[in-house]
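QA checklist item 7 of 12: single-chain prediction sanity check.
[x] sequence parsed
[x] length recorded as 408
[x] structure emitted
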Amino acid sequence: MWPRSVRSQILNKTFNINNIVADFPSNPECLSDFETVVVAPTMLPENHKTQSYNIFVSTWNVGGVTPMEDLNIDDMLDSQNTSCDIYVLGFQEVVPLKASNILGFEKKNVSTKWNSLISKALNKKSNSGQSNNTDFRCLVSKRMVGLLLSVWVRGDLHPFIRNHDISCVGCGIMGCLGNKGSVSIRFQLHDTSFCFVCCHLASGGGDGDEQHRNSNAVDIFSRTSFSDNKKHLPKRILDHDQVVILGDLNYRISLPDQETRSLVNKNDWNALIKYDQLRTELMDGQFGAWHEGKINFAPTYKYLPNSDEYFSKNFDTKRSPAWCDRILWTGDGLKQSLYTRSESKLSDHRPVKAIFSSQVNVSNLGCRNLYLSDVCSQIPASFELASEDGYSTNCDRLSFQYVNKMIS
C-alpha cells in the first residue's frame, strides 16, 4: 500500500535496507578462537561414500525478554544427555517488536548474550574436563530485528565445512521490514549442502489469518538467495540437499476456543492435531514435500508469564493454545529421531527441539593431508563475540581456500 519511493526513503534513512531484505555480513569478524589446525591424514575406504552426523535443531520465541546471565538452557539443548555434531538454534523476538527496534534505531548486545549462554551450555563437558572432543564453536550467527539464527559445530568438524552464507528476508510492515520474515544460513559439510531457515510468520488467530502466513512463506522461498561465487553453489532454499525450517510459524488451531481448551485439558493431541492449520497446509501441498515429526506434546503457545497456565480465554479468545513453534524438514538422507518441547518459562512460548541423523556424502579422495597451520596462524587467539548485525569467522575464507586447493 506504500508507494515504492516512499518506502525506500524510509528504509534508507533508518537502516541499511540490505541488512533487512537479503544480506549477509560483508566484513565478518572472527567469532571464535580456532587454534592452529593440523588435520591428520584421513584414509577413506574405497567403498566409503557417506558419513552420519547428528544435528540438533531448536526454535524458541523468547517474547522480547532479555536473558539473565545465569539463565539455564540445559533443558533446551539437552547437551548433557545427547551428543550431536551440529547445533542450530533459532530465536524469535529476542528484542521487543516495537518501532525503535524494527526501524533499527535501537542497538543492543542481545545476540552476544544469547551466544554466550549457548557457548556455556554446549561446552560444559569440555570445560569440566570430561572430554577434549566436545568443544563447540559458532560457525556463524545472524540477527535481523527479533530473529536470531546461530549455528554451532564441533571444533574438529570445522575444517570440513565450507561455503557458508546468509540470506535475510523481511516481510513484515510495508512488506519488507524485519519484524516478520526469515534468517537463513547455508553451508556445505563435505559434499552435502544444508540450509536452515529461521522464520517468524504473520500472527493472528482470526479467520483468514493463515493466508497471511502462507504469503510470508511464499515470500521467503522466492526472495531468499545465496551467493554463487561462480562455484555452482545452491542459490535457493530448495536447491540444497537437506533443508530444515524452524521458527514461530504462528499457525493456529481451527476450532472454537472452548473446544480447543477442552481437548488440551484431555491431552488429546491426536484429535487436536486434525484441526491444526499447518498440518492442513502440509496435506494440501502448500509447503511442498515437507515432513514433520509426530506431535506428542502440548501446544507451545500461549502461556501466562512464569506459569504453566495458558492465557485465559476471558482475556482474548484469539490467543487460544496452539502449536505455533514448529520444525519441518526435507531432503534425502535426513531422518528425525526426536521431536519434543522444553519447559522454560521465560516467555509465553515453550521451546521446541528436534534431533536429526544426517547422511552426508563424502568424496572418496583416498589419503588427505590438510595442513592448515600456516593459514590459521593469522586468526586472533582471543574469543570475541562480534557485532549485533551478524558475524562469522575469518578462518572460513582463509582455511577452506587452502583445503579446497589441497584436495583438488
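[x] summary fact logged: Residues 16-23+49-407 form a domain with the Deoxyribonuclease I; Chain A fold (CATH 3.60.10.10).
[ ] second reviewer sign-off
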